[in-house]
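Below is how a single chain appears once it has passed through the pipeline. First comes the sequence as given, then the structure the pipeline wrote out for it. We keep one example in the README because the format questions we get most often are answered faster by looking than by reading.
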Amino acid sequence: MAVQDVYNMDGEKVSEIDLADEIFNVPIKQHVLHEVVTMQMVNRRAGTAAAKGRSEVRGGGQKPYRQKGTGRARAGSRRSPLWRGGGVVFGPKPRNYAYKVPKKVRRQALRMALTSKRQNKTLIVVDSLDFETIKTKHFVEVMAALKAREALIIIDRKLENLELSSRNVPHVKVLRSEGLNVYDILKFKHLILLEPSVKQLAARLLP
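Resulting structure:
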């Protein structure tokens, strides 16, 4: 097992914690991370884009002009895709883009993302982030002490004061351990784990 330093809110080392190699020290495969992140991004698509075809556009019931004698190409409707204001050929329709990657692949990608943070030395474990009051200034001071500006903070339970203190700080996101995902881990430069959340991740990701 790897040993990781544990810090307090003042940025001081207070203890150490063992990190399971099965979670924080696995081979990283870029194509697996890419596949899972792509799935997450696609599943967020609204799929509401729409365009009207020639049968849906208003008008077009009357032939614009006679068939012969005008010198122009024959036309049967003003709603033809060739005409201004006409329908769209093979235009987008509302659809669901979502698809699923196997659960084992998703879990393995999560382990790889956590491993990448540890290997890049951007993983920070904190013993506690209990705020007595809602104070954005105090939160910013704690982040400065931990030397983490762009950070994803993983908590083990609802910490309302922390969540409200951080919501106006840019490039910071507070997430509960059950919502941890590959995209958010890779998006933020630092990953801050509360010490109890490490145990929750172990229970979730260990085979």
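The mean pLDDT is 92.

See the next section for the split statistics.
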